[in-house]
Inverse folding.
């Protein structure tokens, strides 16, 4: 790792990454991975789940930075921790579990409460959305389609996806990024509303 990168602020590293210097993102990751992973693991207490949520957290970070929608407010780590927290809450909601809420300022007890039972209308909408997404996934290029299927339907982490497809983790992440971009475009072209 370039020692000069260690002297840069988070905002300078983000700017460098946006300008195509991927080593800037590697420095951000090295700077905060222990803190983010430690928080996730302290809540979920399961290594595999913590690994998945950690990867999903930084995938969302990469996507947001790449799309240029990150608001530079000198609070990068707080923003990353909020993403991680929201993904943890999503995990518990999906699995109908109620976690113990850590006594930390970044945690909000309201965020951890179970959502209302799904009514029939929501169930139908969810099913229709799922069917629409499946149709769109079939329209993706084969390498992007495979990553989406392995990630979202096979529940594989990016390390497994990279191993199964014979590419690096960065390539797997890149294919996922392009798949999401293409899914959004295809949804728009086919007058479908999907949230990605």
């Amino acid at each position: 790792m370039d020692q000069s990168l260690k002297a840069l602020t988070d905002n300078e590293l983000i700017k460098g990454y946006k300008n195509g210097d991927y080593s800037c993102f590697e420095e951000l990751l090295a700077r905060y991975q222990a803190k983010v992973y430690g928080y996730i693991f302290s809540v979920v207490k399961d290594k595999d789940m913590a690994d998945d949520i950690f990867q999903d957290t930084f995938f969302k970070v990469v996507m947001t930075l790449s799309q240029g929608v990150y608001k530079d407010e000198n609070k990068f780590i707080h923003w990353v921790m909020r993403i991680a927290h929201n993904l943890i809450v999503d995990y518990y909601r999906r699995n109908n579990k109620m976690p113990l809420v850590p006594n930390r300022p970044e945690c909000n007890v309201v965020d951890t409460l179970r959502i209302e039972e799904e009514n029939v209308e929501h169930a139908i909408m969810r099913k229709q959305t799922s069917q629409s997404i499946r149709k769109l996934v079939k329209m993706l290029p084969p390498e992007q389609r495979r990553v989406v299927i392995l990630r979202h339907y096979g529940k594989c982490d990016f390390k497994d996806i990279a191993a199964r497809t014979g590419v690096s983790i960065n390539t797997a992440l890149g294919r996922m990024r392009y798949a999401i971009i293409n899914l959004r475009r295809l949804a728009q072209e086919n007058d479908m509303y999907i949230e990605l």
Observations:
- Residues 108-119 have pLDDT under 50 and may be disordered.
- Residues 3-112 form a domain with the Rna Polymerase Sigma Factor; Chain: A fold (CATH 1.10.1740.10).
- The CA atoms of residues 24 and 31 lie 11 Å apart.
- The chain has two domains: 3-112, 120-189.
